Structures are given as structure tokens and as C-alpha cells.
């Protein structure tokens, strides 16, 4: 029973790590395919958006530029007839998309951590099983 639990935990951990790495690569490649480059006044200027850090910097600079354009007003604060409301709406959409990718990267990082924990648990079960097993009978 302990051997089965050990193997199952290790296999689950490995599968989780592999799956999460795949997710990270897909999200990263999907962002990079958009060919978004952070603006010169972003926290990481002139970089292709393809990871959580560049995605955050681009979202933050979009917010900054939008507030400069709208006089500090958000989409909800602008009058329905204000032509800047569409700018604010597009800004909110872009920021939300970037923040969604940041969440995906965060979930992937947590998934790697959980995969490693499962692997360590499996190895621990195996170690305890080996230490507590009865020695072979002497003839």
C-alpha cells in the first residue's frame, strides 16, 4: 500500500509539473505572438510582453496613459456621451486581458510548487517505508 501511495504521489507530482510548464509556455507564446512591446515609460521599457512582469508593466502603463487622456477619470466615471469613454473601455479591456495572463502565470507557479510537494511526499513515503520495513529473515 505504501509503495502504491509513493508511486502515485510521485507520478502525480511529475504530471502536474509537466502540465504546468506546458501552460506557462502556451501563455507566454500566446502573449509574445501579439508582438506587444512595453512603452518607453513602462517599468520594463522596450521589452516584448511574454511573462508576468512585462504583462504587469504594460497593464500599468496603459492605465497611466488612459488616466492622462481622460483627465484621471475611469470608464465608469466618464459621461456616457463622452468620446473618451471608448478609450477608457478599450483600456480596461486590454488591462483585464493582461491581468488574466498574470493570473495564469501565478496559477502555473503555484502548480509547480504543488507538483514538487507531491514528489517530495512520494519520496518521503518511500523513505519511511524502507526504514520501517522488517529486515529479511536470517536462515
Characteristic key phrases:
139 residues, mainly alpha, single chain, 71% helix
Describe it for me?
The chain has one domain. It is 71% helix and 0% strand. The chain has helices at 2-33, 52-69, 84-132. α1 packs antiparallel against α3 and α2 packs antiparallel against α3.
Give the gist of this structure:
The protein has 139 residues and is an all-alpha fold. The chain has helices at residues 2-33, 52-69, 84-132.
Poorly predicted tracts of residues: none
Number of strands: 0
Report the sheet-strand fraction: under 5%
Order of helix and strand elements from N to C terminus: HHH
Helix/strand/pairing class, anyone?
Answer: mainly alpha
Radius of gyration from the alpha-carbon trace, in angstroms: 24 Å
Count of spatially separate domains: 1
Helix content: over 70%
Amino acid at each position: 500500500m505504501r509503495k502504491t501511495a509513493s508511486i502515485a504521489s510521485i507520478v502525480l507530482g511529475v504530471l502536474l509539473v509537466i502540465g504546468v510548464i506546458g501552460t506557462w509556455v502556451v501563455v507566454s507564446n500566446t502573449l509574445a505572438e501579439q508582438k506587444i512591446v512595453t512603452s518607453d515609460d513602462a517599468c520594463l521599457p522596450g521589452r516584448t510582453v511574454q511573462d508576468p512582469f512585462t504583462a504587469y508593466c504594460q497593464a500599468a502603463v496603459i492605465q497611466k496613459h488612459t488616466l492622462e487622456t481622460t483627465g484621471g477619470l475611469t470608464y465608469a466615471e466618464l459621461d456616457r456621451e463622452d468620446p473618451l469613454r471608448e478609450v477608457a473601455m478599450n483600456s480596461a479591456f486590454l488591462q483585464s486581458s493582461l491581468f488574466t495572463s498574470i493570473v495564469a502565470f501565478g496559477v502555473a507557479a503555484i502548480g509547480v510548487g504543488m507538483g514538487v510537494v507531491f514528489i517530495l511526499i512520494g519520496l518521503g513515503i518511500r523513505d519511511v517505508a524502507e526504514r520501517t520495513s522488517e529486515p529479511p529473515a536470517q536462515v
